[in-house]
Specification:
single chain, 212 residues, alpha/beta, 6 helices
Length: 212
């Protein structure tokens, strides 16, 4: 598994305001979208392309375009929705699927409650988006789910990660048998006893959409 931390002054600047408890939901959503676009630039360095012949106003030439079948972006509901627009801004031709998960606050285990994905992902690069990589249980479940649908290349984009979660995903990735990449805005110190990232930014879903 490859882990890439996108260390950049603009990323760190936006993360600072995302972390601030005084940042309201509209501002949080806007910053999250902007930050994801920056992270998506790093996450798509290995996106599959194919040659494409064109003609400029001056002469014929050749370039590249996204290869078929197109990539699939999979936000993890509900917090991943806050990252979707920032990702599709960079990959407007990608298809979008959805995977809903819920965490048991006592056991910290994760179960899926919604799935809107293609019947097969064979030959498709998949970009999973989820703001927080805490315990790693959500990404582990998502990777296994996507692998079973035929995905052969998975990249996860997260705003923040905890060392414990990264290690859990790494151990799982060793068993998947397909390439896995993590792209993170930052790696924080640790998890607390409730499975929250420290210092983190709180519950990303609640900060994006309010408490429901």
């Amino acid at each position: 598994m490859r882990v890439h931390v996108a260390d950049h002054p603009l990323i760190n600047h936006k993360l600072t305001y995302l972390r601030d408890e005084r940042t309201d939901s509209p501002t949080f959503r806007r910053l999250a979208e902007e930050l994801v676009t920056l992270l998506a630039y790093e996450a798509t360095r290995e996106v599959r392309v194919e040659p494409f012949d064109i003609r400029t106003p001056v002469a014929p030439t050749s370039g590249i375009k996204l290869a078929n079948p197109k990539p699939v972006i999979v936000p993890i509901l509900r917090a991943g929705l806050g990252m979707l627009e920032g990702m599709t801004r960079l990959l407007p031709s990608a298809e979008v699927g959805f995977l809903g998960t819920v965490r048991d606050e006592k056991t910290l285990g994760v179960t899926a409650y919604a799935n809107r994905l293609p019947e097969t992902l064979h030959g498709r690069q998949v970009f999973v988006i989820d703001p927080m990589l805490a315990t790693g249980h959500t990404l582990v479940m998502a990777f296994e789910f996507l692998r079973d649908l035929g995905a052969d290349d998975i990249t996860a984009v997260c705003l923040l990660g905890a060392p414990e979660g990264i290690e859990a995903v790494r151990e799982s990735a060793d068993q998947l048998g397909i390439p896995v990449t993590l792209v993170l805005g930052a790696i924080d110190e640790r998890l607390d006893e409730n499975g929250y990232i420290v210092p983190g930014l709180g519950d990303a879903g609640d900060r994006l959409y309010g408490v429901v």
